[in-house]
## 1
Amino acid sequence: MTTITPGTPGVNVGAPAAPSGTQDATDYSIAPEQVSLWQDAWRRFRRNKLALAGMGVFGLVVVTAIVSIFWTPYSLFQEGLGDITDPASWAHPLGIDGHTRDVLSFLMKGAQIVIEVGVLTAALTSLVGIAAGLAAGFFRGWVDSLISGITYIGYGIPNLLIAFLILFITNRPSIFNVIIALSVTSWMDMARLVRGQTLALREREFVEAARATGTKDFAIMARHVLPNALGPIIVQATFLIPQAILFEAFLSFLGFGLPSPDPSWGAMVADGLNDRFLAYHTMIVPSVALLVTLMAVNFIGDGLRDALDPRLKR
Amino acid sequence: MPAILEVKGLKTQFIVRGGIVRAVDGIDFRVNRGETVGIVGESGSGKSMTALSILRLVPEPGKIVAGSITFDGRDVLALNDDELRKFRGNDISMIFQDPMSSLNPVLKVGYQIEEAMKAHDRFTPEEAKARVPLLLRRVRIPEPERRAHEYPHQFSGGMRQRAMIAMGLSNEPEVLIADEPTTALDVTVQAQILEQLRDLNRELGTAIVLITHNMAVVANICTWVVVMYAGRVVEQGPTEAIFRSPQHPYTWSLLRSIPRIDEKLGGKLLTIKGMPPDLTNLPPGCKFHPRCRFTVDRCFTEEPELMTVGPQHESRCWVQMDNVKDRDSDLRDTPQVFEAENATV
């Protein structure tokens, strides 16, 4: 079927076909090409070089994390590879740490934790936040009072305290527990965002029209409210990733994060700090990795916000 | 003819900080099977609120405080949430004023129509899918198969309203309420949409309740007219009677305020002085008396009931326009209104 859908590339509905070679030089602004929201957003995202660079860096971290599952230059348990004061060499590009192990191998394995914690926390947090926000904004009344009440209480209690409590109660630091601790302390922003969006969207005429045709509440939320709020939700979820990565690194730095064989970048920084009188690289390498990753994800978030926010449209 | 929809003594109020807004204040009317009823009135006369009340979609903090709505022998006000959901769209559906915002921008038009059918059990999911192009064809959207896969922003205003009508009719309801369906459209498209509604009414026998402030629209397609003012019915009757011999001063003035193509050049157009009343603080007596040119003493203190003024024709006024001798004299102005206007200038 030769249906012209908004997603079909190269089909200019209403605009004259551009002669080959002048595709980008000519502005057919009279009749804008029909593109889907996502195509349009991608176009604007592509123009943001910082965001693209951020994508590249984050992609590298993801690839590293995947590679590290199957292969690292040295085993994490392999000690006696050299001395912390040894200069960088081809065998150990990032040097040797205080436990006579390979820093690069640890950094690579650490990327795995960064991705797991960042992405899973953002996903879990978004899920909880979206559900809570949708329910509060859509049903209002006592549901809203209850959820908003819990949200504000959540804001009132220090993040660190809750995270400590959860890690103490579970008594066994693991990635799963850290993710739970992070999600419990960071779902409120998403809930508030979604609630606000829902409150605005539920008054829109198409929601009223859906109600007038007897659409079920759940269907209205899932198909009319949520898809229209997806832009800001994606942006918020993206910003949750660096937040979670940083918080995990912080917990691990304090020694409340993952246990020793799990090479969290935060724990590496803490280790490096102990060896500060011998060498700096064990502290600097994971810090820089953390900094670059966080900046990359933040740039992606900024790019997404600009791309998905219709108010900033040219 | 049997009534499919009957509204009796309906009162819808909004309790707000400034008092009680009496949006609908005791209205009665009925819609027979297959009939086309026009509800006319100016902004704030309660016509949209009446429609929303029938579907029990009155927005917060509004409440239906009195009266009854009977649909096909069932009491609409007694339906529970689930019955209400099944009632909406299936037995009675509604199309809204602004087709630009009544369709969800992120979903394909065909999918939205399909969804309206899936909300009810009248059609199986396969049937619902198959019916989409048929419905779009019925409202004369060209290339319905292709158009069903497009998004609302690819439709023109008239096409979106047609799509809304297709959605409204998808479950073959007995009654379709159209709340100012043509207000947001340009005149040529208006005419097409109205013709469309009339044809659908004839072909499918769907009763239509048309809410509008446009007398010409009513004259075009309605068989029965209900004129509303300040949340109540001031006059109702067959279209013919209302347009030929309006008996309420409000209806009469409304009709006289429409320019006519056969009017002599330079003639003065009649206007209705003043503003619609504040619904939190209604005037005593007849609610129209502050703006009326034909008041008698009783108007200031006593509100008239709907009185029979002709065959099936009722008017809520102590005066019948047929009995007013010099009604065309433009000198008849209500003194209070005059003073009030001078005071503000």
## 2
Amino acid sequence: MNRSLKIFIFIFIFQNISFGNERTSARGIGMARTFVVTSRGVDALGINPANLSYLDRGSYTTMSLLPIGVRAGSDFINFKVYNDYFTGDPDSLDKDGNRIIGRRLDANDKDGIFNLFPSGIAHTQSDFDAMLLGFTSIGGNYAIGFSVTERFSAGLDLPEGYLKILLNGFEEKGSEHTLNNTNYGVRWMREYNYSFAYHFAKNVSLWKFRDISVGISYKPVQGFYYAGTDHYNGSLQNKIYYNKDSVNWIDSIQIIGNIDYAQFQSSIPIDSISQFLFKPAGKGTGFDIGVSAKIISGWQFGMSITDIGSILWSKSPKYSYGKGNFTISDLGKAGQLDSLKNNFKGKTIDTTSFKRNLPTIIHLGAAIQLDESPYVNRKTFAGKLLLEGNIHIGLNDEPGNTTLPRFSVGAEYVIPSRWVDWLRIRSGMMFGGRELFSWSLGIGIVNPVFDFDIGTESIALIITPNSFRNGSVSMGLKIRM
Amino acid sequence: MIFVLFPFFIFGCVKILTPKLPSWQTQLTIPLVDRTFTLEDFMKKSSSLFIDSTNGEISYRPAEIQNKPDTIKLPSFSPQPSRVSQVIGPLPWPNINLPPSISSFKNITGQDPPVIPFPGADIIGIFTKDVNLDISGQLDVFDFGTFEDGSLEITFINTFAFGFNFTNGIAIRNRDDNSLVAQYPAFILAAGETKKMSVVVTGKTLKDQISISGNFQTQNITGKIITSLNTIAISTQITGSSGTGNASLSEAKILFVGNIDLVNLPNESDQILDDSTYYKTLEFSKGGFDIRVVNGTNFGVKVVFEIKEFINKSSSQPFFISGTSKEATISKNATFLREVLLVDYKLQSQELNNAPTNKINFNLKIQTLIPSFVDKILVRKTDSVVAEIVPKKDNLGSTIPYKLHKVLGKITPITIAIDQTMPLATGDFKTKFKADSIMFDSLYLAYKLFTSGLFPTDISLKIYAINSNGIRGDSLTLPTNFVIPISGKQVRRILPGQIDSIVFNKNNSTLDRFISSFISNGQGFFPDSIRIKGTVEINPIDVYKDPNSFGGATDGDTIVTSVRFAFPMRIGIKNGTLRDTTIIGDTTASGTGSNKIDKESLSNIVQGKIFFSIENTFPFQIQIKAGLYDKSKDNFSIPDTIALMYLPMNKDTILVDSARYSQSPVRPGKSYTAFALTPADVDKFNPATFMTLAINIRTSGNGDKAVIFRKDNYLHIKSFASVTFNVDFNKKK
């Protein structure tokens, strides 16, 4: 099995790959998605519309050439866990050195796997964004932008209870497996972005802010597939009752469980997607709003709220639900096992329509062009260094989003050599969110006509390959005019 | 995908190994059975237990059965049509006489009498005199009449001084057609003579205008003084043909001056039922009749009809022949029809003191309804009025019987055969339970019979117990309670409204043997049904013959017998065994089901255990042996006949001590047992779908001493399994 195939299997089988958003700006990916302040041109579409009114490295007009971004990752498993537990016993090798039998998991191994579940839940998320068309232009104090982006997002929150059922079963001492907050969501939507920005005059200031720009995006969105959990709580327990007189004796055992979940689904006919590319299953409207400003020389602040709005899904909408408690004390008693099966299986009914929010996020950031700041000696500072820090706060857990806040820092460096002034080196780190941590790296090849950017959030693999749990790459070509 | 692989291709420092699923051990600790066998489960899963409120003891009442009611059918009667035909018959001569006529000399001879003695010779001539019955100034009451019986007497009074010789007699003829009414023979009417002659006119028709004529010759007229005062006066009288009595007419057109009663039956009676059924009140559910009156006369008639016993059920009014009237008017030559449905009426005896009767009393009067002094009416003696009561017929032309619905009175004895078999509702207990012997401290069998009829009833029944093989045990005979006067015969009799009730117990019967005899030396089963057989006689003959007795019954009245069989749970049992089968797996499919471990995975089982936790509050020790069975290949819902394995696996049993009733609160006997299972054992256990529990019970004293069963007696059996096994998906592949 060649290496590519192995990685493929790792990503697609163990990490449950799917696709998501925020991926079309390869520059931003290289800086750990730290871009609310310094994104420019088409990179600013969908991030902070206020930034459209700033010149993009001196260009008034930019166009994108099919930038795409892909990411798949999970905190459920990392590369070390994979190697340790899912690649076989290192002591059982065949003549070619291949491992013959699977790793025998002992109690410590099981605990090690369970420890992979932060807060008892493993988050798995995948995104894929592809900007089919992007265009921005500045005229005077005004700027406009337009883009069409396909966005695929999927997420799965898996409580450790499932794995405990698999690994530990129902123990003789009793077991309780909680399935609370199980959550999954898959969404495919198309976003049309009509953005407008206004750059106030240089002499306009607000408090200490100047060079102020504001922007807004109007985004009709079309939904083609949605399946998601509204809520999911449950538990499964085998409860042991010991004899009151003699604790050595089991008096009775009961399997006790409860379930309460609801899910929504709506989609175009999956077997004839081509006929429905322009006949969506859901329609909605989103808005982005943003503001950017400078406060002192070199410092710039920005804030945006993206994807305000919702989609009303109305094609083949279905509502699945299940709720109930059950106790099994006698496998032979009519209805007890049926109660278990029926509660988990639930019921699916056709519903009229349902509304789901867009993955609304608040972005806050500050950036400084360090080589131009008063904090360094500009004459002796080698090269150019842009630093930016962002906070991202998701307002819901819709696919592509999380309410787990993220903090990220990113940098873009230009080597002080005229031989390589076409090269941009970018890096960044992000903490929190579903990913917990990622280290990004990216490069940009720039010239007056175009920018070619590529970036990844999986660079931590180099330093701590064993903790690798995400795969990510974005790339794009930006044309300047 | 190339982009996803980007980090790896760039840095190439990570070794990716072929994935291989790990293996591990896991446990499955699950409940299998949690069953509480109450006393009710011991006896019958659906039986009723009741608690004696006086001592808190529990009684087992496997049967309280009310049989399918036997129905009392009241008799029906075949009605016969009845008919009253009234012909008008000969009409009385309306007492009309021919008006007297006087003929003078000129009238007779056509010449005036001379003022001197008659000079001439005797005169020969024809005597003619027209007479009209309608006398001027009187009503025109008569057109004609044909005599049914009559004679016409004619009287001549001669005041002349000479005689007349009527040589050919005198004839009376109807003037319009010259038809002869009466012909009198030749005669001589002497001077100054009065002469009477009579002729039978039966069959002759007399009309209202007649003539009297005849040839005559005077005798010795010469020289006789004749005055205008001399006349021959003629008068007539119509009488019966015998010369006395009234004449009658067979047909006439006359003017009636009053109505006559054609039919007058003021106090008639008829038998509506048979001669053995008497009623004070009576209701029918079926049947009816038509009252039909055919008026064959040329005049209207009035019918007055009353049935004294008939009372309309809805209005409580007496029977009306027409609307709300007892009278009906029928036009000439018309038919009157009145439909009477018996279901609309009830009959109430009108005898003295409302004494039972089998008849109805009615009045029938048919009266002419002739408009007086208006017009003359043609009447014939054959004119008639017919009154009929015609029972209703069905579509096939058969007479619909009068179906008794309710009677208060006397009916002939009705004998009803009773043969009811009532299951004891012991369910499958009779096959689940076997014992070397069983001793009941007391049994109880309550018999009841009730009839909704209101006649004294004699009961002659026996009660048998029958087991499932149809074998009949001892019988219980209902004791007598009444001696019939005169005959001295002893019977069991209940009076109207009484419930016949007998409680059989060991003190008044052989009831203990009645049941216990079915079980002896481990043979036989509990009886599974009770049969009541015999007869019930409604209104026995001695009651029927008593003229002062009467009762009541409604068609469909029932005789209900019931049996309640019970015994306080004081039983001594020797080696009693109860078997019960519970389901512990999927019985819906032929496979092992999703909750079973597949054969390949069985080798992964490391160890297994089955636990039994048993609690016993019965007043006896219990020994339990569990058998595990696969489902039958032919019928998934029943266990296979061959056990997969037994628990315990050796000859031992799980022994559960009896409850300690000497302690307060009562301390249940408990048992905890665990059986280790090897993978081979699990292999046997794995397909088990049914668990059969053989529960052996033995009261103290080796069954010779009865123990008291109480409401809270139960046996709680819990079983659970714990299996530790390897999970190795690689191996499975």
